[in-house]
Amino acid sequence: MPKRKVKATPTAHEQKDQLAQEPTMTEELEPLLDIIEVAAILRVCRPKIYDLMRRKALPSVTIGDRRFFIRSSVLQWIKQQETTSF
Question: Scanning 47, 66, 70, 85, which has its CA 20 to 30 A from the CA of 24?
Protein backbone atom coordinates (compact mmCIF):
# COMPACT_ATOMS: atom_id res chain seq x y z
CA MET A 1 0.00 0.00 0.00
CA PRO A 2 1.53 3.39 -1.01
CA LYS A 3 2.34 5.88 1.66
CA ARG A 4 0.10 8.92 1.82
CA LYS A 5 1.78 12.28 1.70
CA VAL A 6 0.88 14.32 4.71
CA LYS A 7 0.86 18.05 4.16
CA ALA A 8 2.66 19.79 6.97
CA THR A 9 0.79 22.62 8.59
CA PRO A 10 2.67 25.89 8.37
CA THR A 11 4.26 27.22 11.50
CA ALA A 12 3.11 30.48 13.04
CA HIS A 13 6.19 32.19 11.58
CA GLU A 14 5.41 30.86 8.07
CA GLN A 15 1.79 31.99 8.36
CA LYS A 16 2.94 35.45 9.39
CA ASP A 17 5.31 35.63 6.38
CA GLN A 18 2.52 34.54 4.05
CA LEU A 19 0.16 37.20 5.39
CA ALA A 20 2.86 39.83 5.01
CA GLN A 21 3.11 39.01 1.28
CA GLU A 22 -0.64 39.36 0.60
CA PRO A 23 -1.87 42.82 -0.42
CA THR A 24 -3.80 44.79 2.13
CA MET A 25 -6.74 47.04 1.34
CA THR A 26 -4.90 50.20 2.30
CA GLU A 27 -1.61 49.41 0.56
CA GLU A 28 -2.00 47.89 -2.90
CA LEU A 29 -5.61 47.39 -3.91
CA GLU A 30 -7.29 50.15 -5.84
CA PRO A 31 -10.99 50.80 -5.57
CA LEU A 32 -13.01 49.36 -8.41
CA LEU A 33 -15.07 51.58 -10.68
CA ASP A 34 -18.48 50.64 -12.04
CA ILE A 35 -19.79 51.32 -15.54
CA ILE A 36 -21.38 54.64 -14.58
CA GLU A 37 -18.11 55.93 -13.10
CA VAL A 38 -16.09 54.85 -16.15
CA ALA A 39 -18.63 56.46 -18.48
CA ALA A 40 -18.24 59.71 -16.53
CA ILE A 41 -14.42 59.53 -16.73
CA LEU A 42 -14.50 58.87 -20.48
CA ARG A 43 -17.39 61.29 -21.03
CA VAL A 44 -19.38 58.77 -23.04
CA CYS A 45 -22.77 57.13 -22.57
CA ARG A 46 -23.18 53.75 -20.85
CA PRO A 47 -24.00 51.88 -24.10
CA LYS A 48 -20.57 52.91 -25.43
CA ILE A 49 -18.93 51.33 -22.36
CA TYR A 50 -20.89 48.11 -22.97
CA ASP A 51 -19.76 48.19 -26.60
CA LEU A 52 -16.10 48.60 -25.60
CA MET A 53 -16.44 45.74 -23.10
CA ARG A 54 -18.10 43.49 -25.68
CA ARG A 55 -15.22 44.15 -28.10
CA LYS A 56 -12.76 43.56 -25.23
CA ALA A 57 -11.22 46.94 -25.97
CA LEU A 58 -11.58 48.31 -22.45
CA PRO A 59 -9.98 46.26 -19.64
CA SER A 60 -12.45 45.09 -17.01
CA VAL A 61 -12.75 42.59 -14.16
CA THR A 62 -15.70 40.26 -13.69
CA ILE A 63 -16.80 39.57 -10.13
CA GLY A 64 -19.82 37.32 -10.01
CA ASP A 65 -22.12 38.64 -12.69
CA ARG A 66 -20.90 42.25 -12.52
CA ARG A 67 -18.12 44.03 -14.39
CA PHE A 68 -15.76 46.48 -12.72
CA PHE A 69 -12.78 48.52 -13.84
CA ILE A 70 -9.48 49.25 -12.14
CA ARG A 71 -8.93 53.01 -12.28
CA SER A 72 -5.23 52.83 -13.24
CA SER A 73 -6.04 50.36 -16.05
CA VAL A 74 -8.68 52.72 -17.44
CA LEU A 75 -6.28 55.67 -17.30
CA GLN A 76 -3.56 53.60 -18.97
CA TRP A 77 -6.04 52.56 -21.68
CA ILE A 78 -6.84 56.25 -22.29
CA LYS A 79 -3.15 57.02 -22.76
CA GLN A 80 -2.85 54.15 -25.24
CA GLN A 81 -5.69 55.64 -27.28
CA GLU A 82 -3.80 58.89 -27.89
CA THR A 83 -2.82 59.54 -31.47
CA THR A 84 -0.19 61.96 -32.67
CA SER A 85 -1.51 62.45 -36.21
CA PHE A 86 -4.23 64.92 -37.09
Answer: 66
